[in-house]
């Protein structure tokens, strides 16, 4: 976009230069006004492009922040799930060990059964 704008500005200046050198006639105020309007238009286009880029960057930053917060929440949930699963597994192992100690479990098959409970 910037290259196109700069290219148009260079072409406009070259055209103006060729016209003023080739004709050697007095420039009309209308011609100068038209060139001024073109420069103003290009300046406005550049400002709008900058503003648009800033808005897009701000929007991207907001989206990144929201994604980061969501990932943080998911991580917390996963940690809680792992803690719960670990706790349940430990309780099952503890129950099986207690049953084995008490003599209520006779075989490895019984230990497996106790672990499944």
Q: What does the model show?
A:
- This protein is mainly α.
- The chain is built from 3 helices and no strands.
- The protein is rod-shaped.
- The mean pLDDT is 78.
Q: Can you summarize this structure?
A:
With 117 residues, this protein is mainly alpha-helical. It has helices at 2-23, 29-102, 108-116.
Q: Give the helix proportion (percent range).
A: over 70%
User: What is the 3D shape?
Assistant: rod-shaped
As residue ranges, the low-confidence spans are none
From the N-terminal CA to the C-terminal CA, the straight-line distance is 68 Å
Provide the β-strand percentage band. under 5%
Number of strands: 0
Determine the number of helices (DSSP H or I, runs of at least 4 residues).
3
Residue-averaged pLDDT: 78
Rg measurement, Å: 38 Å
Main β-sheet description: none
Q: Pairing-aware structural class of the strands and helices?
A: mainly alpha
The string of secondary-structure elements, in order, is HHH
Question: Layout of helices and strands, plus pairs?
Answer:
Blueprint: H1 2-23, H2 29-102, H3 108-116
Tags for this model:
117 residues, mainly alpha, rod-shaped
